[in-house]
């Protein structure tokens, strides 16, 4: 069995840029800190991320978040939540939200 995967690492400002590539899956660990503490800013950030992934034709969007409730609320219209996995990133408890694009 010969499996081949292409992994592309890229940095993009999802708030201000459209994707320049098409991908099947996006795994992202968005910045924490001041922005995640400002609960009013998170829906905009997460909506921009979801829109970016949709425009990149991603079938899957997987996001580490300290606020899964906010992320799930943003994703629910265009992404199906497949799983929620809790983990520690350093000393921060986060949830990895695995989602699949709705058709």
Total number of beta strands: 4
Overall helicity: 25-40%
Summarize the main sheet: 4 strands, mixed
CATH class, named: Alpha Beta
The CATH architecture would be 3-Layer(aba) Sandwich
Low-confidence stretches: none
The number of helical runs is: 3
Strand content: 25-35%
CATH topology-level fold name: Rossmann fold
Q: What does this protein look like?
A:
With 103 residues, this protein is α+β, with helices and mostly antiparallel strands. 25% of the residues lie in helices and 30% in strands. A four-stranded mixed sheet has the order 1-2-4-3, covered by helices on one side. It is globular and about 45 Å long. The model has no long low-confidence stretch (mean pLDDT 87).
Summarize the structure.
The protein has 103 residues and is an alpha+beta fold. The chain contains 3 helices and 4 strands.
Key descriptive features of the protein:
Rossmann fold, alpha+beta, single chain, 4 strands, 103 residues, globular
SSE inventory with pairings:
Blueprint: E1 25-28, H1 34-37, H2 42-55, E2 60-65, H3 68-75, E3 79-89, E4 92-101
Parallel strand pairs: 1-2
Antiparallel strand pairs: 2-4, 3-4
Helix pairs in contact: 2-3
């Amino acid at each position: 069995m010969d499996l081949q995967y292409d992994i592309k690492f890229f940095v993009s400002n999802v708030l201000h840029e459209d994707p320049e590539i098409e991908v099947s899956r996006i795994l992202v660990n968005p910045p924490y800190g001041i922005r995640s503490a400002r609960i009013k800013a998170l829906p905009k950030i997460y909506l921009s991320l979801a829109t970016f992934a949709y425009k990149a034709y991603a079938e899957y969007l997987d996001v580490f978040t300290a606020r899964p409730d906010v992320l799930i609320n943003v994703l629910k219209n265009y992404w199906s939540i497949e799983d929620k996995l809790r983990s520690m990133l350093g000393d921060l408890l986060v949830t990895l939200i695995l989602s699949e694009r709705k058709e």
